[in-house]
Design brief:
With 417 residues, the chain is mostly beta strands. It has a single domain (2-293), classed as Beta Barrel (Porin). Helices cover 10% and strands 63% of the residues. The chain is built from three helices and 21 strands.
Length: 417
C-alpha cells in the first residue's frame, strides 16, 4: 500500500504537467532552436529503418546469449547446461511538428535451458517517454515496466523474478551552446518474488520503493565532449518491516560525456556518496563511487576499452544491509579485412566488501571475481555483428573458503560493430 500511495502521488502531478505542456506546445510558434538532447532524439528518428509517415521503427533481433555454461549457479557443486536468451524488440519514434517526440522500446525475450527446466522463462522489457521541445527547453515524461527473471547482482546466484515499475520527469534548459542545466525526479517500485535463498526470503528482503532527485550542470567543451557536475539525493523504503534496507543517500558526481561519433566514446563519471542506514545500529558508507565506461579508437584497426564501477548494493547476506561492489575491466578490439571481422579480448576484476561480520570476532566477508574472455565477430550489416565468445570465470569467498570456477562458450548478436 505504501508503494501504491507513493506511485499515485508521483503520477498525478506528472500527468497534469504533461497535459498542460501538450496543450501549450500547439499554441506556440514554430520551433526556432532545440536543445542538444532534442537533436539526439531527432537524429534517432531520422535514422530508424522503417518509415510510416511521422512514425519510425527500428526493429531488433536480440540474441543476448546462446551457448554452454559449465556452472550456471556459480557454485562449488557445479550444474552445467546449454542455454539461449533471444527474442524480438523494437524502438518506435513518433514526431509532431519537430516539437513533440514519443519514444518507445519493447522487447519480449525467452530464456531457454536445455536441462534445467525451472530456469526457463519469458522476460519482458518496456520503457518509453514523451519529450516536448520548446526552443531552449526540453521536458520529458516517461516510465518503464520490466518483468524479468535475471541474476540481478553478483551476490545472488539464482534468478529471482523482479517486476520494476518506474516513472520519471526531467527538465533540460540549454542556456547557450556551451551551458545547460537538467533536473530529474524519478520513482521506482521494485517487487521481487517470494523465494527462499540461503534461509532468506528474497521478496521480503529486497522489495522496495526508490525516490530519486538529481540536478546536473553541463558545459560543452567542443562538439564531441562535455563536462558535467551532478548532485543526487535518494531515499529507499522497503516493503517489509523486517528488512534492514531503509536508507537515504546523497552523492556528488563529476566527469565527461563523449559523443558516439568521436574517437573517444562513453562516459567518465566519478563521485563521492554519503549512504545512511535509517535503522539505528546499522552501518553507513562514506566514500568513492563511480560509473565509467570508455572506448578509444587509438588507431584505425585498434580500439581500447576500460570501465570502472563502484557503488552501494543492497544485500541479502547475514545482517548486512548492503555491500560495496568495486570492479574494473580493460580490453581491446582489433578490426581486420576492411572492418568485416573484429577480435575482442576482455579482462575484469571485481571485489564485493561487506561491512559486518557474519560471526562476531570473524573477518568481514569479501568476494573476489576474475573474468577472462575472447570473442570473434563477423559483420552482417553496417552496425550488426554475429559473435562467438568464450571465457573463464572464477570466484573466491573468504568466509566460505570458496574457490569456484566455470567455463562458458556462446554466441550473440551485437548492434554496435
Amino acid at each position: 500500500m505504501k508503494a501504491l500511495a507513493g506511485l499515485r502521488k508521483f503520477a498525478v502531478p506528472v500527468l497534469r504537467t504533461t497535459i498542460f505542456c501538450l496543450f501549450f506546445s500547439f499554441l506556440t510558434i514554430d520551433l526556432m532552436a532545440e536543445t542538444w538532447k532534442a537533436k539526439e532524439l531527432r537524429r534517432a528518428w531520422e535514422e530508424a529503418a522503417w518509415r510510416f509517415g511521422p512514425l519510425r521503427v527500428q526493429p531488433l533481433i536480440i540474441i543476448r546469449d546462446a551457448g554452454y555454461d559449465s556452472n550456471i549457479y556459480y557454485h562449488p557443486q557445479a550444474v552445467s547446461d546449454f542455454w539461449l536468451t533471444a527474442g524480438p524488440g523494437a524502438y518506435a519514434y513518433l514526431m509532431f511538428k519537430k516539437r513533440v517526440i514519443v519514444r518507445v522500446f519493447e522487447s519480449r525475450q525467452y530464456v531457454y535451458f536445455f536441462k534445467t527446466e525451472r530456469e526457463r522463462t519469458w522476460n519482458n522489457y518496456f520503457n518509453g517517454d514523451v519529450s516536448l521541445s520548446f526552443n531552449r527547453i526540453l521536458l520529458t515524461v516517461g516510465g518503464a515496466w520490466n518483468n524479468a527473471r535475471e541474476r540481478w547482482n553478483t551476490e545472488i546466484d539464482i534468478r529471482p523474478r523482479r517486476i520494476e515499475k518506474r516513472g520519471n520527469l526531467s527538465l533540460l534548459y540549454q542556456r547557450s551552446y556551451r551551458v545547460s542545466f537538467e533536473v530529474t525526479a524519478s520513482l521506482a517500485d521494485y517487487l521481487y518474488e517470494s523465494l527462499e535463498y540461503n534461509s532468506v526470503n528474497i521478496g521480503e528482503r529486497l522489495s522496495h520503493l526508490e525516490n530519486l532527485f538529481s540536478g546536473k550542470l553541463y558545459y560543452r567543451l567542443n562538439p564531441r565532449i562535455q563536462f558535467f557536475l551532478e548532485g543526487e539525493f535518494a531515499r529507499y523504503d522497503f516493503r517489509s518491516e523486517l528488512s534492514p534496507g531503509d536508507s537515504r543517500s546523497q552523492a556528488v558526481y563529476s566527469g565527461f560525456e563523449f559523443s558516439p561519433a568521436g574517437r573517444i566514446r562513453g562516459r567518465l563519471r566519478l563521485g563521492y556518496k554519503n549512504f545512511d542506514s535509517l535503522e539505528e545500529g546499522r552501518p553507513d558508507y562514506r566514500g568513492l563511487v563511480g560509473d565509467t565506461s570508455i572506448s578509444w579508437a587509438l588507431m584505425r584497426p585498434l580500439v581500447l576499452r576500460a570501465s570502472y564501477q563502484r557503488d552501494v548494493n543492497f544485500s541479502v547476506w547475514s545482517q548486512n544491509p548492503f555491500y560495496v561492489g568495486n570492479g574494473w575491466s580493460t580490453g581491446a578490439s582489433v578490426y581486420m579485412f576492411r572492418r568485416r571481422i573484429r577480435l575482442d579480448y576482455n579482462y575484469s576484476r571485481l571485489r564485493n566488501d561487506y561491512p559486518l561480520d557474519a560471526v562476531p570476532g570473524s573477518e568481514p566477508r569479501k568476494d573476489f571475481y576474475t573474468l577472462n574472455s575472447v570473442a570473434l565477430y563477423i559483420r552482417i550489416k553496417k552496425t550488426v555483428g554475429f559473435g562467438i565468445s568464450g571465457g573463464l570465470w572464477s570466484r573466491k569467498i573468504n568466509v566460505f573458503d570458496w574457490d569456484v570456477r566455470k567455463k562458458f562458450l556462446g554466441a550473440n548478436l551485437t548492434y554496435e560493430f
